[in-house]
Amino acid sequence: MSRNALSRDQVLEAAAGLVKQHGPDALTMRKLAAGLGTAVTSIYWHVGNRESLLDALVERTVQEMGAIRPTGRTPAERIVSVARRLRRELRARPHLIAMVHERGLTERMFLPAQRALVHEVHAAGLRGARAAEAVRAVQVQIVGFVLVERNRERAPVQSPGEEELWGSASAEDDPAEQDPALARALARPADPERLFAVSVRALVESLLSQGNRQAGQAN
Hints:
- The chain is mostly helical.
- It has two domains: 8-63, Orthogonal Bundle (Arc Repressor Mutant, subunit A), CATH 1.10.10.60; 68-218, Tetracycline Repressor, domain 2 (Orthogonal Bundle), CATH 1.10.357.
- It is built from twelve helices and no strands.
- Helix 4 crosses helix 6 (94-102) and helix 7 packs across helix 8.
- The radius of gyration is 23 Å and the shape is flat.
- The N and C termini lie far apart (68 Å).
């Protein structure tokens, strides 16, 4: 691919793909040029040196994370939609997010999503400290859930696992004996997407209803 046929966006897209798949250490100008079928000098011409390329990738990630928009009919639905989208985006690019964090830009990256959440908690009637508390609680739920997911994925295989532990009742007061359907459900692998949606929806509904009750009492 010639220099004129290659664009800066194409270089950044290919570089982001390498980082997503293998981490930043795998990103070399030579490997990137080979993947694009061009000369290394062409890569330098479009994005500068490797540090400039990494800076551009961080800026691109920050901008992409800022493109999250709420959907839904009610403030609660829209807050949940932002939370679910933000979790998916964080999960999709862990190496790029780590690069953003290392450069001290995490708060800037989260600001657009925070603003979207503020708009929705305002629409739900929350103001001041109650609104800030709700926004931060949702953000902590998102980030905390993602961290727990990653830790579970890195953990060694558990033996015995949940399937074995919940597979049979061992005593009369065992929950598996009292509620076989519960035991069967706990023996199956959890659905992280569904579990996140259930937990964040419960949190949001509680925060909004609690805030509205407090506002009613103040009036």
